[in-house]
Amino acid sequence: MSTSKPAGKATGPKSAAGKARSALNALKHGRYSKHPSILAIEDADAFRDLFRTYLAHFNPASLLETRLVQELTHIDWSLTRFRTLETGFLNQTLDLQNSPLAGLPAPADPLQRLCSGLHRSVQESSFAQYLPP
User: Fold this and answer.
1) Inter-CA distances, 62 with 53, 59, 76, Å
2) Contact assessment for residue 115 and residue 122, using Cβ atoms and an 8 Å cutoff
3) Is the pLDDT of residue 54 over 90?
4) In the chain, domain spans
5) pTM above 0.90, yes or no
6) DSSP label at residue 4
7) Which of 11, 37, 65, 80 could form a disulfide with 60 if both were Cys (CB 3.0 to 4.6 A apart)?
8) Residue 35 CB neighbours (<10 A)
9) pLDDT band at 57 (very low <50, low <70, confident <90, very high)
10) What is the rounded CA–CA span in Å between residue 125 and residue 123?
């Protein structure tokens, strides 16, 4: 005989702190334990801190809302990464202006399309109402 509570009587955390800790389980176990948003060279603690910041701000009341906060965190993280890459790319391009390759046409920016798509995703999401105009 099992000593665990029947599913109908099981309860989750009641306090806000307990709910916040429980929401972080998604980053410790299962599909998000090695989050696909975080590259090996990136700071996983910074990603968790960003997630915690969004959790504290939006205070999700359900699993669906917590999932939306996870998606928002992923989108924010990805946009920051792409902006960093874009800056590096543009800096390299500007450095090339003083090189013998200066007369060649500028290379296309493949990151701009992806960054624009991520930005559209945020604008079309239910979180758009919380963004500054």
Assistant:
1) 17, 9, 21
2) no
3) yes
4) 15-98+108-130
5) no
6) S
7) 65
8) 19
9) very high
10) 6
Residue by residue, what is the 3-state secondary structure of 61-117? CCHHHHHHHHHHHHHHHHHHHHHHHHHHHHHHHHHHCCCCCCCCCCCCCHHHHHHHH
Residues whose CB falls within 8 Å of the CB of residue 20, separated by 6 or more in sequence, listed in order: 52, 55, 56
Cα separation, 75 vs 123, in Å, equals 11
Q: Which residues contact 18 (CB under 8 A, 6 or more apart)?
A: 12
- Give the up-direction half-sphere exposure of residue 110: CA atoms within 13 A in the CB hemisphere: 0
pLDDT band at 27 (very low <50, low <70, confident <90, very high): low
Token digits for 1? 């005989």
